[in-house]
Amino acid sequence: MRTFFQEHHAYTRAINQQRMDGIRQAIPATTDQAVIRSSVMIVHTLVEQVSCVTEALRRFEKEIDALTRSHADFQLFASLPGAGPVHASRFISALGTDRSRYEHVEDLLTFTGMAPIMERSGKTTVTHFRWFCPKFLRQSFHEFAGQSIPYSRWAQAFYRQQRVRGKDHQASVRSLAFKWTRMIFRLWKNQTPYHERTYVAALQRRGSPLWQVMAAQ
User: Fold this and answer.
1) Is the whole model's pTM more than 0.70, yes or no?
2) Which residues contact 82 (CB under 8 A, 6 or more apart)?
3) Interval 161-176 mean pLDDT
4) Most buried among 5, 72, 154, 165, using CB within 10 Å?
């Protein structure tokens, strides 16, 4: 059992010992051999199905990776900090090569669901998610924003700025994803790879509050 736990990256001795003690002290739910043998057969069948699916996923991933690397805009999206092959392929699928597909950044923000909805009634204003959008696409921009924080100085500073203002983790990442979407749109339109130094230098020239946060780090 210890070998099994270690092979599955469970290295905490106290927790592993607790698991083994629990297994030894466990009371069988049934001793009916008909139930036990049929259940074992079902488990074996499910494991075989999982193996087939896993192999199919490997083939899909290999094909997606080859198509992504051969795409005209691969270097553009691969230059994004923390994007890696996964998010590069997703952004290629989201934007493509037809630059007329999205005329304005608001078109992309609305379609992806990154732009929130504001409802006003009298003196009351409510801001909430844009529910009607491709959920996986919105998730991709959100996940990328989270991945960019360790790799981008300004993204890290922006995230910290949002947390100081009282936003929780997910709200802070959503705000960062909104900014990243605008930036990705402009890079895509201009067919220009991302350069961290260029953007940071622009923040410094403008005396942006975000630059002040970065300088204080």
Assistant:
1) yes
2) 144, 147, 148, 149, 150, 151, 152
3) 92
4) 154
- Rounded CA gap, 142 and 159, in Å? 13
Q: How confident is the model at residue 217 (pLDDT cuts 50, 70, 90)?
A: low
d(CA 141, CA 90): 9
pLDDT by residue (tens digit) across 65-82? 999 999 999 999 999 999
- Token reading at 187: 């890079």
Three-point CA angle 64, 196, 92, nearest 5°: 20
Total number of domains constituting the chain: 3
Q: Is the pLDDT of residue 212 over 70?
A: yes
Question: Do 36 and 85 fall into the same domain?
Answer: no
CB 181 within 8 A of CB 148: no
195 in the same domain as 161: yes
